[in-house]
Amino acid sequence: MVKLRCVITDDEPMARKGLQGYVEKLDFLELVAVCEDAVQLSNVLKQQPVDLLFLDIEMPYISGVELLSGLTDPPKVIIVSAYEQYALKGYELDVTDYLLKPVSFERFLKAVNKVYDQVTKSAAACTEPQFIFVKTTQKMEKVFFCDILFVEGMENYVSIQTPSGKVVTHTSLSDFLKKLSPYKFIQIHKSYIINQDHVSSVEGNLLNIGKYKLPISRNYKAKVLDVLFKT
After folding, report:
1. In a shared domain, residues 98 and 156
2. What pLDDT, on a 0 to 100 scale, did the predictor assign at position 168?
3. DSSP symbols for 10-55
4. By residue range, what is the domain housing residue 13?
5. Are residues 119 and 142 in the same domain?
6. At which of 126, 157, 186 does a domain end?
7. Which SUPFAM superfamilies does this entry report, sorted A to Z (predicted)?
């Protein structure tokens, strides 16, 4: 069984105690720290790996939103807040779920099951040999689907961006899309296909994948937001 290392961060003692009790009921969750504010959480994240954050929004010193905005590679996040007006901002920061206080165990369980499913599916996808061979000018090159950040169409060629660089092959963007999993890849623009697993945030008409900012066209935006933010 995959165990998720989680941290609770909330400035309210009763809220921390309630979440801790819920976490202890589930074998696939391992509580590694309980923090009273985002400053403590920041220190924890520097010291050990964390898979899941239960994060309050309004806290002393630094808000939960400010902390998330400053993380380059955040773990999965479930926001737990008494204020529903932060929900949209939370989803723009790619949180997995947004729980309103007081949180029932049933609602808590639904949220953590969603995280568990995402983590285990992602792990399975990257451990199984799922790849494609693409023809470059000099050789046939293997590209793993889980390594693809995005694909850019350039007339009769596509450029496949991975963490280690670009692979360019002679094909159309529409033909290349047919070779990709519809559950992982989605077209966001006439010139771009993205890997949903690598999306870090959405800001207006821009989608962020690491250091890359990609445009979302008007024709694709509704579908893109529906797929990325579906509950």
Report:
1. no
2. 95
3. -S-HHHHHHHHHHHHT-TTEEEEEEESSHHHHHHHHHHS--SEEEE
4. 4-126
5. no
6. 126
7. CheY-like
- Percent share of the chain, pLDDT over 70: 94
- Tens digits of per-residue pLDDT, 92-112? 778 889 999 999 999 999 999
Indicate the pTM of the whole model.
Answer: 0.56
Closest CA to 82 of 63, 61, 58: 58
What's the Rg (C-alpha) of the chain?
Answer: 19
Task: Report which residue type is found at 215.
Answer: P
Spatial strand order of the sheet with 157-162 comes to: 165-170, 157-162, 150-154, 192-195, 185-189
Q: Measured between alpha carbons, how far is 182 from 179 in angstroms, rounded to an integer? A: 9
Q: Are 145 and 181 in contact (CB under 8 A)?
A: yes
Q: Identify which has the larger pLDDT, 210 or 181.
A: 210
228: tokens are: 């990325």
- Whether residues 95 and 182 share a domain: the answer is no
Domain count, the chain: 2
- Pairwise CA distance, residues 208 & 13, whole Å: 35
Give the H/E segment covering residue 98: strand 97-100
Identify the domain boundary among 75, 102, 126: 126
Residues 16 and 122 in one domain: yes
Residues 116-161 pLDDT 10s = 988 887 766 555 557 889 999 889 999 988 899 999 999 899 999 9
Residue 72 belongs to a domain with what CATH number? 3.40.50.2300
Q: Please report where in the chains the tokens 């009790």 appear, as a residue.
A: 21
pLDDT for 34 equals 97
